[in-house]
Amino acid sequence: MPNMPSSTALIHYAARAGDHNDRAMAATPYLAAALAAHLGVAPTTVGSPSPSDPSGWDAELAFALPAFKELATALDRALDAKRYPVTACSRCAPAIATLPVIARYHPDVLAVWFDAHADLNTPENSETAYLGGMALSGPLGMWDSGLGAGLKSAVLVGARDIDATETPVIDGERIRLIAPGANLVEDLKKAVAGHKVYVHLDCDVLSPGQMPTDYKVPDGLSLEQLGAAIAAIAQVAEVVGVEIGELETGETEEETKAKAKKLVETVSPLLVAQYGQQAQ
């Protein structure tokens, strides 16, 4: 098959990205190590940790911009070499850099956004000025991040903490919401069937206690439901890459290792290159 990638490219984004605290930066080496062990490939590390210093979106973006550009370049190189990209991120904000690259190579891609939040705020309407809250809106062209756009459509999966300013743009066509509930897996399956998709996973899509993460939003997915959703995507869609973020360190190093390994096991159906596969 002409589009079949030759291998997997594992990228470890290690730098600050609008962080409220340092725990996600501290967790990414464990996530990258778990992914490396599962995939049998060594990661390419982008950036390095620096102490969190929460401020407005513009200051955070300016600080993160060199690492974001390096991340975009790493992803561009992987896709140009027809390698399947798997990225371990600290937070969700690096999607500002990754999704425009994905959209350039796959103009018809559907972003599947697993997150407790919609991340559709813009600099003009955000009440918190939090960079991560704009992580999806930038690639969708709702504001100019300086890193490009090009993403045409997205499916929000598991979002339940949605701001009043975000609700009007979730139109069911360009941006669709699949809320937590008994029908989530079947609804998701219908939404992505036959599509080319890129999967973004924030750990806070899960109910509190499933994974250590910054935000603890009730009534999320269980690990079992997430696993079923991931398996459904792999069955009916052509997956062109995956990125994982918002895992924080646990109480001990052993807990962090165990949680990272469990997370990788849960998403394992997406860790196999599927370019050129015919959707079922």
TrEMBL record:
Keywords per UniProt: Hydrolase, Manganese, Metal-binding
Protein name, per record: Arginase/deacetylase
GO molecular function annotations of the record: arginase activity; manganese ion binding
Species name: Cutaneotrichosporon oleaginosum
Sequence intervals crossing the membrane: none
Keyword Hydrolase: yes
Stored Pfam families: Arginase (PF00491)
Lineage: Eukaryota, Fungi, Dikarya, Basidiomycota, Agaricomycotina
UniProt GO cellular component terms: cytosol; nucleus
Coiled coil: none
Membership in a protein family: Belongs to the arginase family.
Listed Gene3D superfamilies: Ureohydrolase domain
